[in-house]
Amino acid sequence: MDTMVITVRTGGRPVVCDITREAERFAEGRGDGLLHVFVPHATAGLAVIETGAGSDDDLLTAIDDLLPAEDKWRHRHGSRGHGRDHVLPAWIPPYATLPVIDGRIALGTWQSICLVDPNGDNPERQVRFSFLRG
């Protein structure tokens, strides 16, 4: 199994970061198999969604609607509402597995692989790409 870890700078605010290009570079030339993407963080996840055209912001708005950053959370360290960030991976998991055909990730026309990070307390995230040969 081949693996690679990248660092993504997410800054100090909630973000949706498109990491498709990095994933494509990793998968390129590897033949057929599966690309597994994993974020080893308790407050971030991965989504396969359309980016641009407002979808990124719509996802962050949906997270805020579903999991508001309020002081109601029992998990209270960090910034206000940080407890919701620890609940996020139950809805947006920290992993995604995608088919790779002839060294190309088999994404749909508008699909992108995105790191979803609502936690402004951590400005950097690690993402692990693993390739499992078919």
CATH homologous superfamily placement: YjbQ-like
What is CATH's topology name? Answer: Jelly Rolls
The helix count comes to 3
How far is it from the N-terminal to the C-terminal residue, by CA? 11 Å
Count of strand segments: 8
Helical content stands at: 10-25%
Q: What is the arithmetic mean of pLDDT?
A: 92
CATH domain class name:
Mainly Beta
In CATH terms, what is the architecture? Sandwich
Hey, roughly how much beta strand do the residues contain?
Answer: 35-45%
For the largest beta-sheet, the strand count, sense and barrel status come to:
5 strands, antiparallel
The backbone outline, from C-alpha atoms, is: elongated
Ranges where pLDDT stays below 50 over 5 or more residues in a row are none
Run of helices and strands: EEHEEHHEEEE
Strand order of the largest sheet: 1-8-3-5-6
Class from secondary-structure proportions:
alpha+beta
Radius of gyration: 15 Å
Number of domains: 1
Structure notes:
It is a single chain. A hairpin with a 2-residue loop joins strand 5 (95-101) and strand 6. The chain has 134 residues and is of the alpha+beta class. The protein has helices at 20-27, 55-66, 82-87, and strands spanning 2-9, 15-18, 33-38, 45-49, 95-101, 104-105, 112-117, 124-133. The chain starts with a strand and ends with a strand. The chain has one domain: Jelly Rolls (Sandwich), CATH 2.60.120.460. The chain is built from three helices and eight strands, in the order E-E-H-E-E-H-H-E-E-E-E. The strands form two sheets. It has a five-stranded antiparallel beta sheet with strand order 1-8-3-5-6, covered by helices on one side. A three-stranded antiparallel beta sheet has the order 2-7-4, with helices on both faces. The model has no long low-confidence stretch (mean pLDDT 92). Pfam families: YjbQ (PF01894). This is Secondary thiamine-phosphate synthase enzyme. Belongs to the UPF0047 family. InterPro entries: UPF0047_YjbQ-like (IPR001602), YjbQ-like_sf (IPR035917). It comes from Couchioplanes caeruleus subsp. caeruleus.
